């Protein structure tokens, strides 16, 4: 129930009710359906386009999906076991702020320590000001990074700074989980935000002004040694675990590079034996050849709904059993109704005219919309039927949950 207040001071209570969500599991091809045939939802060739924000299919929004398998490269759906990013973090100072920095003493102490490193000894109380801010600097160190490579860094305020717009990051050491220094970051920040203020407390801000990035702002100073496999085998790791995809990837490698080289160890890993001719200095060529192997990943039957934003994403493989859905909505509106009560004639002394609060309740129920779906209904059938009855995104979320509870939705329902 959400409460809104009109400009005249009326208070409205709106109760959105997915009333009459009657989900009936019907037997396919039963005599009742045969006697009263129901016009099925439009096929994928004539299904109406999904309106913006209502429903999204795994293909283009509102476009019928061809139902064809998608073929991608192995490197696009998997990675080598040893190839991974490494997180780096550091704490530093941003200077050059226009009075929007920290007001705490931590930034003053860090600035005094920085000046002390430059043989300038001052007290932290002597460098107080709001032109500096304490920040946390993070970066991802890619695999095979070499000394001198540049990587992007993200800078976030760690104090009470109002904005980092126009600031410059002072040289900051970035360390790994082993407390070793792997990179050094420095440079001007890019926030993509606008922050301004004026006398009287007026201010204007667009986007987040306390988070910024420095493209190529860190220089790699230490390399991370990486050894691919154990010399005789390599392991590919799928981004989305799936037994069917793992088996298909192993078969594709064997078909392209030689039978018996690859096998699916589980739903995520594919172990590949490296031929003796490719071991040693030719390993990079072998890895590149495997990365270009075409693979047809399996697409799970999944429906993802976000109740906060009303977003619904329906996978192509989702199927629905014969089902009928009745959907309506009830709106209850409560408005204050004030009445004036005056004292009657010859009223006791001290009687006053008072305002007596009251309320007026009005309920409006929309006619229920009923639609049916035939057996093995596809996502196009569902989207077309929901759009035909004018269901809102939040109504679609409730309807899908009810169909799943009735056991008529064949697929995974993920509610975020």
Name its key features.
disordered N terminus, 29 strands, four-stranded mixed β-sheet, Aspartate Aminotransferase, domain 1, six-stranded antiparallel barrel, 416 residues, flat, alpha+beta
Structure described in brief:
The protein is α+β, with helices and mostly antiparallel strands and 416 residues long.
Question: How would you describe this structure to a colleague?
Answer:
By secondary structure, this protein is α+β, with helices and mostly antiparallel strands. The protein has 3 domains: 14-66 and 302-333 and 363-415, no CATH class; 73-82 and 227-295, Aspartate Aminotransferase, domain 1, CATH 3.90.1150; 86-220, no CATH class. Helices cover 17% and strands 35% of the residues. The chain has helices at residues 31-35, 74-77, 105-117, 243-257, 283-291, 379-388, 393-405; strands spanning 2-5, 11-14, 19-25, 56-57, 72-73, 78-80, 86-95, 133-141, 150-157, 168-175, 181-188, 194-197, 203-206, 211-220, 233-238, 262-264, 269-273, 294-295, 302-306, 311-314, 319-320, 323-328, 330-336, 339-341, 354-356, 359-365, 369-373, 409-410, 412-415. The strands form 10 sheets. A 6-stranded antiparallel β-barrel has the order 7-8-9-14-11-10. The chain has a 4-stranded mixed sheet with strand order 4-20-19-29, covered by helices on one side. Strands 6-15-17-16 form a 4-stranded antiparallel sheet. It starts with a strand and ends with a strand.
């Amino acid at each position: 129930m959400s409460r809104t207040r009109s400009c005249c001071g009326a208070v409205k209570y709106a109760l959105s009710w997915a009333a009459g969500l009657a989900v009936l599991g019907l037997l396919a091809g039963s005599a009742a359906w045969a006697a009263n045939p129901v016009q099925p939802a439009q096929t994928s060739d004539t299904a109406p386009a999904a309106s913006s924000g209502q429903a999204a299919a795994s293909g283009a929004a509102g476009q019928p999906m061809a139902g064809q398998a998608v073929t991608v490269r192995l490197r696009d759906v998997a990675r080598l076991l040893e190839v991974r990013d490494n997180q780096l973090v550091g704490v530093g100072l941003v200077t050059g702020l226009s009075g929007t920095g920290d007001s705490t003493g931590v930034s003053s102490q860090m600035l005094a320590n920085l000046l002390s490193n430059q043989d300038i000894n001052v007290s932290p109380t002597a460098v107080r000001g709001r032109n500096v801010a304490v920040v946390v600097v993070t970066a991802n160190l890619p695999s095979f990074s070499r000394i001198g490579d540049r990587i992007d860094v993200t800078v976030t305020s760690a104090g009470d700074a109002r904005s980092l717009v126009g600031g410059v990051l002072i040289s900051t050491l970035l360390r790994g989980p082993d407390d070793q220094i792997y990179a050094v970051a420095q440079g001007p920040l890019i926030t993509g935000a606008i922050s301004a203020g004026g006398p009287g407390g007026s201010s204007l801000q667009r986007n987040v002004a306390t988070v910024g990035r420095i493209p190529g702002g860190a220089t790699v100073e230490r390399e991370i040694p990486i050894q691919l496999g154990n010399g005789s085998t390599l392991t590919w790791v799928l981004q989305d675990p799936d037994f069917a995809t793992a088996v298909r990837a192993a078969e594709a490698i064997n078909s392209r590079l030689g039978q018996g080289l690859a096998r699916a160890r589980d739903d995520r890993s594919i172990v590949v034996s490296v031929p003796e001719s490719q071991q040693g200095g030719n390993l990079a060529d072998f890895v590149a050849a495997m990365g270009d192997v075409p693979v047809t990943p399996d697409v799970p039957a999944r429906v993802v709904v976000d109740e906060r934003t009303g977003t619904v994403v329906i996978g192509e493989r989702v199927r629905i059993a014969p089902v009928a859905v009745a959907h309506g909505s009830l709106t209850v509106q409560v408005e204050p109704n004030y009445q004036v009560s005056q004292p009657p004639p010859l009223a006791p002394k001290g009687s006053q005219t008072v305002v007596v609060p009251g309320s007026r309740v009005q309920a409006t129920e929309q006619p229920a919309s009923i639609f049916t779906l035939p057996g093995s209904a596809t996502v196009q059938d569902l989207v077309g039927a929901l759009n035909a009855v004018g269901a809102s995104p939040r109504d679609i979320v409730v309807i899908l949950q009810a169909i799943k509870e009735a056991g008529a939705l064949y697929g995974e329902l993920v509610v975020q």
